[in-house]
Amino acid sequence: MRKKSKPRSSSTKLNLRSAGVADIEMRRRIRLRRRKIDRLLVAKSVFSLRLLRAYTTIKDKTVQRRLVILVEMIAASQR
Length: 79
Description:
This protein has helices spanning about 20-55, 60-79. The longest helix has about 35 residues, at about 20-55. It is an all-alpha fold.
């Protein structure tokens, strides 16, 4: 079992330094980068769901295999 940590007294609490201009700018850039990545992930997941729905509506297994091969070839040519 884990032991509970003791609460810090006022003398042992960490003093936070004030954020400099460079730190504030770096946090802003990180926040913007995360938003951009989140948007890309959402866009990719929406497209993936559309592709999966289209794939599952195809009943012919041969056509499904050919579709997978086609998508793999397109992806390989984009690398």
